[in-house]
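Sequence only, no structure available. Ideas?
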Amino acid sequence: MNYEESIEWLNTIPLSFDRENKNYEFKLDGIKAFLSHLKNPQSNLKIIHVGGTNGKGSTCSVISSVLQESGFKTGAFTSPHIKDFRERIRIGKDFIDRDFFREFIVNNRFKIESLDLTYFEISFAMAVDYFSKNMVDYAIIEVGLGGRLDATNVVEPVVSVITNIGYDHKEFLGNSLEEIAMEKSGIIKHNKPVVIGEENEKIRNLFKIEACKKSASIYFSKMSQEYKSDLTGPFIQKNISLALKTIDILKLGIAMKDIQKGILNVKENTKIYGRWDLIRKKPKIIFDAGHNISALTTSILNLEKSSKVVFGTLEKKDQHNIFEIFPTSFRYYFCPVPSKRSMSMDKIENEVSKRGLKYSFHDNVSNALSAAVKDSNESDTILVTGSTFLFSDLY
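Reply:
I predicted one. Tokens follow.
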């Protein structure tokens, strides 16, 4: 296989579950066996393990950027990607080497197939193998789904991070915030510190209990000041505070000038996309991947009443309630997501037709955005949001 053929082969592997969520299994046997086959590269790494509902990618990127500015060789594994699979696995600002990707697939293909691994498990194993072979100083690993039985939870981190708790993947994680928090608290490890960004007192107390059970020191981040950053949006200052608290716990003696420079240059240092990206000023066009109710609620609260929203989402149990938060003062441009798991336009119409919204349907996100721009004047705001799958063609 060449690189392109290796990518094509990987794209035939199920992500984690299919449209009906029938292929998802909570088990770690496969990933443990595969990592053993690779001689457990994760054991060679100092890992910062980041879970939670929203803000994981931004928090990972801020930590990575500050560590880079301080001279540390830093690996980061995040998901999903926007434009290129290689965004998921980075050392500094550089994506994983194409030759390494190809050789990993070629050398391990038959083992992968024999273990029936998922796309995410393959990606994670590739990341820790790449970071180990390149001897990074720190590896930042983002949880995929949940925590307790997520493939990444085989690692022994130097610190765990839980950003916040919101409703997402209820079919897997539970119907209440407490149930979801319990799944995500599974990344708290014995005698390892954990940093929490969640502000809800009831959920914070739950984390305190779980940390106590594991003799884990627990810390809570809080905003002490605002920092200038090339990352913007309603979440970013909270995520920065969480990232800085995590770095503080590592006691690396990082100079304030490197902290400030790292925060200022997150996009440049990590190539993060789709987090409240200002794409155009007149009319204002913002790209923001908001794939669950809690993320989208915060985004919408930060828009003016006459804004326009381009939206497409995947078929998930908790997505049907998402339309309840859409203000009637906005105009909506709905489109399918380029994925087999896209929510159908018929289902979306069934949900929105009874809510008094102003809306239209479009064949794809490009046409939806074009229609929104055509309907706008220079002072308007257009938010493109929903599934990350929307953004690859737009960028």
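The radius of gyration is 21 Å.
Hope that gets you unstuck.
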